[in-house]
Amino acid sequence: MSNELAQALSGALVLGSLYAVVGIGFVILYKATGVINFAQGALMLMGGFIFFSLHESAGLAWPLAMAGAVLIMFVIGALIYLGIFRRLVGAEEFTLVIATLGLSVCVLTVSLIIWGPGTRTLPETLSRSELFSIGNLGFSSVEVFSIVTALVVVAVLDLALRRTRIGIQMRAVADGPLLASLSRVNVHAMSAIAWGIASFCAAVAGVAYTMRLSADPAGMHALGLLAFPAILLGGIDSVRGVLVGGFLLALAQSSAAFLLGGEWSEVVAYALMLAVLVVRPRGFFGSRQAVRL
Amino acid sequence: MTTGENTLEGQATNVEVPPEAPASGASTAGRPSGLRSSKGYRLLAPFLPWLAGALALVVFANTASPYVLLISGTVLIYAISAIGLNVVMGQAGLVSIGNAALMAVGAYTTAILAKEESWSAFPLPIIISGVIGGLLGLLIALPALRLRGIYLALATLALQFFVVFAGDRYQAESGLLSGVPVPPLSIGDRYFVPGRDFVLLLGAFLGLTILVVRAMSRHAPGRMWTAISESELAATAIGVNAARWKLAAFVVSSAIIAVSGSLFAYYNQIVSAETFTIEFAVVFIIILILGGMGTMSGAIVGSVIVVSLPYVLTRLTGTLPSDGIGEWLSNNIFYVNNGLYGLLVLVVLLYMPQGVVPSVTGLARRLAHRGADQPRSSDRPARSAARPAVAKGDDKPAVLEVEDLDVMYETGARAVSGLHLRVEANAIVAVLGRNGAGKTSTLRAVSGFLGTEQVRLRGHIRLEGKDVLGSSPGRTAAAGLVLVPERDKVFPSLTVEEHLRLATSGDYRPVLEKPHFHRLRERLDQPAGLLSGGERQLLALATAAMLKPRLLMVDEFTLGLAPVMIQEVARVIRGLRDEGMTVLLVEQNAAAALELADHVYLMEGGEVVAEGTPAEMADRVTMTSEVTS
Fold first, then answer.
1. Alpha-carbon gap: B168 to the closest alpha carbon of chain A (Å)
2. Fewer CB within 10 Å of terminal CB in chain B, N or C?
3. What is the pLDDT of residue B589?
4. Amino acid B371: pLDDT
5. Do B613 and B554 share a domain, yes or no?
6. CA neighbours within 13 Å on the CB side: how many for B97?
7. Using the beta-carbon criterion (under 8 Å), do B279 and A232 form an inter-chain contact?
8. How distant is the Cα of A16 from the closest Cα of chain B, in angstroms?
9. Helices (H), B116-148
10. Residue B265 — very low, low, confident or very high, per pLDDT cuts 50/70/90?
C-alpha cells in the first residue's frame, strides 16, 4: 500500500467517525421530534469554538474544556427546543426545515460575532505525530482519540436508547407523541433531551475537529452539512446505519480525493447522495416509512 | 437617514402595485357600485393595476436617486427569483434549497454566451439560461419525485454543491479566479447599466414573470399544485399524477430562477461562484417566509424587506452614538445584517406563521371590524370561569362527573349538548351510541384533546372533584386519567417488554402474573407492531393498568376483534374492575357493552337519551335501533 493511500485511509477513518457522531445526533433528533436539522454544522462550529475558548482563553485542561463544551452545548440544544421548537410542535416538516435553516443562520451569526471569522489553531493538545501503525497505516494520538471518542459516543447512545427508561420513552415519543403523552411520558422533556443530544453530538465532533486541525468556521460548517449524505446513505432513521454511512462516505471521499484530487471530495459526497436518492432512498438500514409517499 | 426612508417608501410604491392585480381583479366587491356598473370601467379594470404599476415604476425610476435605483434593481431581480421559488415552495409545497444554484446556472450561462458574438444578442442568453435552468431542474427533481418533500430539499442541496464546484472549476480553468466578467446588456445599440433604464427593464421582466405564473396558477397546473400541497394522497386518489405536476412545478420554477440569475449577471457584470452560497439560497426562502408563502405580492414585499434591511440598518447604525451599543453594532454590522434574517425567520414562524403580509392585512381587518365585534368573552370556554375546587355533593364524589357539557365546533356544529354523565368509583360505565352520536367528542373532551383544537367547550368535567375542562391531554393524564384509544394504542417499534417498562419505573413483572395477561409473557421480545389486534388491546390494557389510573377510558375495544377475542378482552376489563379500577367504556357494540357494564348511557344526536342498568337498557337498545350493527 502506498503511503498516500495509507494516509487517505486513516484520514477516512477519522472523518467517518466525525460523520457518525454528528449523524447519530441528527437521527435521534429526527426520530424523536421529526425535525430534519440543517443547523448541525452551525452547532458543531459553536461547540468547537466554546472548546477553544475554555481551553485557550480560560486555561482549562483539554479534557475539562471538552467536557465543558459538550455539556454547554447540550444545554444550548435543550434551550433551543424550549425556546423555539416547542412552539412548533405539530408544525409541518416544511416549516420545521425552514426553522432549522433560520436557526443555523442565527447560531452562525452569534458564533461569528463572538469569535470572529478567522481560523484559530490550538497548540497541540494531543500529539499529532504517529502513535502506532498497522502496516504503513499510521495513526496519531489525536486521530485515535477522535475515532475512539466518536465510537464510544455512538455506542453509548445506541445502548442508552435501547436499554434505559429515558431511551425507551424517547423511542415511544418517536413512535407516537400523542400516545406517549397519554402514557404519561413527558413529551416536552424528551424532545428537549433529543435536542440536547443532537447539539451535544455536534459539539463532540466540533471538539474533535478543532483538536485535530483548528477551529475553522467554514470547514466545520461544511462538515456538518456533509453529514447529510452520510445519514442518507445509512438511512435517515437508523441509528446504526449512520455509523456505516459515515465511514462509507468518508471512504468514498478519501478515494475520490486520492484518485481525482482533493477538490473532488465534496462533490463526490453529494453525487453519492443523489445516487442513493435514485437507487435506494431509504439507505442501507432506514425504514420504508421514512421515505413514504 | 432621510434617504434611507425614501428607499423603503420608494421601493414599496414601485413594486407593490402590480401584484395587487390578482386581488383587485378577483374581488370587485369592495368597489363603489356606481363605478362597477360603468361599462368602460369594466373593460379597463383588469388593466388598471398594471397601468398604475407601470406608471408608478416610471415615476419612481425618474425621480429616485441613483443610489436608490441601484438597490431597487437588486430588489426587482430578487423578486423575480422569489416568485420562481414560490411556485415550488408556496404553490406546490416543496422545500428547495437550490435557489442559489439555479441562479448560478443562469448567471454562468449568460456570462459564457454574452462573450460569443453569435449568441450574445438580446434576449438569447436570457432565454437559453431559462431553458438550461429548466432542464437542470428536471434532472435534479426526477429522483426526488416519488419521495417525501424533504428529499427534494436534499437533492437541491446536492445541486448547490455541483454547480458551485463546476463554477469554481470553470473559473480556475479560464484563469478568472475573481469572477467571470459579463459585458453589459445591450438591446440594439442601447446599453443597459444599473440605473433608470435597467430598473424599467427589470420592471418589465417582473411584470412578465407575474403574468406567466398567474396564467399558470389560474389554470390546470396551479390547481393541481394546490391540490398536491393540500393533500398529496387525496390528490393522487382523484387521479392527479402528483409526480408529474410536481415535476412541472419544479421545471417552471427552475426556469424562472435561472432567468433571474441571468439578469443578476447582467446587472452586476460579474459572476463568481463565491456569491452563490447556501446562505444565499436561504435568503430566498426567508423572503418567502417574510412576505407570506404562496402569494406573489408576498414574494415582492419580502424582497423589498430583505434587500433594503441591511442598508437601512447600516444607516441607522451610523446615527447611533459611537460608543457602547453603537460601537458594537458598527463593528459587527456585517454579521448582524446576515444574522438578522435568521432571527426574522424564527420570529415570523413562531408569531406570524402566515407571513408578514397576511398577518398585517389580517390585523388591519380585525382592527377595522373591532367596533362591530361582539364581546369575545362568551366564546371563552368555562375554564376561566368559577372553578369549584370540590364538587357540591357532600357524599363521596364520583370519579368522573360531567355536567351540562356542550361541545361545539367552529363551524357551528354541535357535537354534544347538555350532557350529564356520572361514573362511580369501582364501576364499569358504558356509553353506547351509533357513529356520530357524540361519543367520541365526549371522550375527547374528557381526555383533553378538544382543549387544544378549535372547539368551544362549556360545562363542567370533574375528575375526583377537580374541574379538568379544557386541560391538555398531558394534564388530564397527570390527573389520573388514562385513555386506551380506538386506534394506535401501542408503539409499533417498542417491544412488549419495553411497553411495560415505559409504564412503571419499578418492577413490571407482577402484572404478568395476573392470569388475564399471561398471553403477553410469551411475547415479551416482540415489537408491538407485530402483535395481533387482540394482543395489542391486551398490551394497551396492561400498560394502562400499570399506570394505576383513577379512571380508565377505553374507546371501542371491540373494534376489529373476533368474537372470541372480545370475550377475552371483556374478561380482562372485568378483572381490572374487580381489582378496584374504575372504567368508562365508549362502545358501538351494544351486546359486549351491556354484558360488561354496571351502568349504561345511551347517546343519540349529542345527547343522552336514556340511562340505566344493562337489564333496563337492553330492551331500549333493541327497540330504538340496530346499534349493534
1. 10
2. C
3. 87
4. 52
5. yes
6. 26
7. no
8. 19
9. 124-144
10. very high
Q: Is the pLDDT of residue B238 over 80?
A: no
B488 CB neighbour count, 10 Å cutoff: 14
Within a domain: B381 = no
Measure the CA–CA gap between A244 and A202, rounded to whole angstroms: 18
Contact B336 A185 (CB under 8 A): no
CA nearest to B542 within chain A = A183
Nearest-Cα distance to chain B for A278, in Å, is 5
Q: Residue B555: inside a domain, yes or no?
A: yes
The fraction of chain B above a pLDDT of 90, given in percent, is 24
Which residues constitute the domain of residue B45?
Answer: 15-26+34-63
For the purposes of burial, counting CB atoms within 10 Å of the CB of B237, is it exposed (0-12), middle (13-18) or buried (19 or more)?
A: exposed
Residue B531 lies in a domain: yes
Residue B9 phi/psi, 5° resolution? Answer: -60, -50
Maximum average pLDDT range among B9-23, B263-277, B292-306:
B263-277
Q: What is the CATH number of the domain that holds B595?
A: 3.40.50.300
CATH code that applies to domain A3-291: 1.10.3470
- Verify that B350 and B448 share a domain, yes or no: no
Count of structural domains within chain B:
3
In terms of domains, do B115 and B46 share one? Answer: no
B131 and B215 share one domain: yes
Cell numbers describing residue A229:
449524505
The x, y and z cell numbers of residue B186, run together, are 445591450
- CA distance linking residue B313 with residue B325, whole number of Å: 13
Q: Do A95 and B473 touch (CB under 8 A)?
A: no
**Rounded CA separation A98/A103 (Å):** 8
Q: Please give, rounded to a whole number of angstroms, the shortest distance from the CA of B33 to a CA of chain A.
A: 42
Name residue, grid cell 408563502: B293
Running DSSP on this structure, what letter comes out for residue B456? E
Confidence check: pLDDT of B623 > 60:
no
| Residue in B168, B137, B160 with CA at minimum distance from that of residue A269 | B160
Type of residue numbered B26: A
CB contact under 8 A, A273 and B474: no
Q: Is the link from the previous residue into B123 a cis peptide, with omega within 30 of 0?
A: yes
Q: Mean of the pLDDT values across residues B288-302?
A: 87
At B522-555, the pLDDT tens digits run 888 999 988 888 899 999 999 988 888 889 999 9
CB pairs under 8 A between A and B: 171
Q: Which sequence spans correspond to the domains of chain A?
A: 3-291
The answer to whether A267 contacts B162, with C-beta atoms less than 8 Å apart, is yes
Average pLDDT over residues B596-609: 89
Q: A100: which chain B residues are within 8 Å (Cβ-Cβ)?
A: none
What pLDDT does residue B625 have? 47
Same domain, B94 and B134: yes
Contact state of B143 with A274 under an 8 Å Cβ cutoff: yes
Residues in chain A: 293
**Neighboring chain A residues of B232 at a CB cutoff of 8 Å:** 293
- Is residue B395 included in any domain, yes or no? no
Q: Does A97 touch chain B (CB under 8 A)?
A: yes
Please tell me the predicted confidence (pLDDT) of residue B23. Answer: 38
Same domain (yes/no): B54, B98: no
Q: How buried is residue B618: exposed, middle or buried, by Cβ count under 10 Å (0-12/13-18/19+)?
A: middle
Sites in chain A below the pLDDT cut of 70: 1, 288-293
Statement to judge: residues B58 and B90 lie in one domain = no
Chain B: residue nearest A268 by CA?
Answer: B162
Closest-CA distance, A213 to chain B, in angstroms, reads 23
ipTM of the complex: 0.87
pLDDT at position B386: 39
Cβ pair A171:B505 closer than 8 A:
no
B478 contacts in chain A (CB < 8 Å)? 184
Instruction: Report whether pLDDT(B4) > 50.
Output: no
Identify whether residues B334 and B428 lie together within a single domain. Answer: no
Of A95, A271, A292, the CB nearest to B349: A95
- Nearest residue in A to B480, CA atom: A184
| pLDDT 10s digits, B49-61 | 788 888 888 888 8
